[in-house]
Amino acid sequence: MQDTLQDSRSSQPLADVQTAAQEPLPKTLGQQKDDAIPEHVVIIMDGNHRWASARHLPGAAGHRAGAKRLRPIAEACAELGVTSLTVFAFSTENWHRPNAEVGLLMDLMRHVMRTEIDYLHKQGVRLRVIGEREQFADDIQQMMADCEALTAQNTRLNLSVAVNYGGRWDIVNAAKQLAQQALNGDMSLDDIDEARFSSALSLRGLPEPDLLIRTGGDFRISNFLLWDLAYTELYFTETHWPDFDSAALQDAVATYARRTRRFGRRK
Q: N or C: which end of the chain has fewer CB within 10 A?
């Protein structure tokens, strides 16, 4: 989908969302102490539709603006020293939205993979797509595989994009994998512990999330990474995702840095 595509309900061009990727990073990014920087940040990118409504724009404009927000936030995370970024782009529940909205989101997915992957590759970003892919069109599944293959050796930032993903699905899927291995005789039930279970989840091989950010004003995790978020610090903001810039990211990280993480122990 082209950047200048207009919703059928409005003839207004989306000029106000064209400059998001060119935002300069604030000078203070990357200057904080290493121990104050989360290694793994996860983001529930919420508030696109409300952002559009507040500007008397069609909902499609909010989704397009939100799609443009990912690149500058990924850049800001890498500048800070974050090594892994996981974003919730499309949940299993999102299929129940109106057909026109789902179709738009599919076209946006194609557009982002087509136009952003070369830039992300040059910036050293490794892309991983997590979630159940079989429900997507064949061309989208192929684009996902191609993007992953292109960036597989990159090490600057691990970017995991969750699509058709649900935390409960992830846990059930891991349980099925381990049960099948036990039935095959590849391991015993006593071999299944938390570490083995984690190795069957979508984020296997990555550090556990340190900080979850949810934009858009809601205060819940919405079936996202239910196992992985056990000890993650939670940060909620009223800022809608299209307005969440590098300064807002720095505010979230500063809040994280002021917290004491005990992991159930007394310090």
A: C
